Amino acid sequence: MSQQRVGERQAAMKQLWETSFSAQIASQAYNTAPVEALVRTVAYYLRARDTADGEHNLHFLEMGCGAGPNLLWLAQRGIRVSGIDISPSALALCQDNFRCAGMQDQVGQLCEGSVTTVPFLDGAFDGVLEACVFQHLNRQERFQAFAEVARVLKPGGVFVGYMLDRGHSTFQQKQAEQLPEDPGSVLLQDNRSNFYLTNIGLAHFFSREEYDVLLKDFSVVDPCLTTYYLPREEAQKRGYDTYLQSMWTVYAVK
Ligand SMILES: C[S@@+](CC[C@H](N)C(=O)[O-])C[C@H]1O[C@@H](n2cnc3c(N)ncnc32)[C@H](O)[C@@H]1O
Predict the structure, then answer these.
(1) SS3 249
(2) How far apart are CA 216 and CA 73, in angstroms?
(3) Residues ≥6 apart with Cβ < 8 Å to 74
């Protein structure tokens, strides 16, 4: 892709997420709770590293940190945190949340930008998180984002990601519309809201095999499936009778 096309694509992604965050803020619908699958996985990782004085001396990055609930959870466990997000509105919420919690001292950098080119040094982080971000990238961007995860992690550093799986109800319903050049990806646009998955544009549903390729230089690659049905009322709001969330929690060690 030419530099101009990359610039245009990033401007479009920024616009999409700014629109989504405005709608989420208006409906008080943005995520304020840490993602349970990330919490569980990172908690196991930290338990193995607990010191007698509770000091970790770790620095984690979240790629697509949104309003920052995952970063705040980490900071409350004594971890230094940095975040990158394409939406300035999301970053403003994140900064506010750290200010309200009195935890600004735990923040390294919160910066606006794309997960495909992150402005951090090689090996800068002990851990990298992402939740529901890489699933909205096209094929080239996904390879770039995973390469950036590998680049900014220290050897032995941990990656924990949370992404859509092909067993998800939306993929099951739409799989006939997969993009021929990018199997697993569909374009979702139903004008029901500006923030449900069903209206966020490109969505990629990962298969188990993809992680071995995307995380090829990692010593451990351990994706685990979590599935649950949304309550019927919530499913119906999204235009479904039943709605199975089928998500990968990917644990990998560089
Ligand atoms: C579904 S929200 C998840 C936010 C956060 N990870 C959480 O768990 O609450 C997706 C976030 O990714 C951000 N995002 C989407 N595409 C991005 C990109 N290419 N680069 C950086 N951030 C991006 C959006 O602005 C949004 O904050």
Answers:
(1) strand
(2) 29
(3) 42, 60, 81, 129
Q: Pocket around ligand 1: residues whose beta carbon is below 6 Å from it?
A: 13, 17, 31, 35, 64-66, 69-70, 84-87, 90, 114-115, 131-133, 136
Given a contact cutoff of 8 angstroms between Cβ atoms, the answer to whether 133 and 62 are in contact is no
pTM score of the predicted model:
0.95
Pairing of strands 153-164, 125-131: parallel
For residue range 171-210, what is the model confidence (pLDDT) as tens digits?
A: 999 999 999 999 999 998 876 666 666 677 899 999 999 9
Ligand 1 centroid vs 53 CA: distance in angstroms? Answer: 34
Q: Which residues of 37-53 are buried (b: 16+ CB within 10 A; e: fewer)?
A: bbbebbeeebeeeeeee
Helix/strand/coil for 185: strand
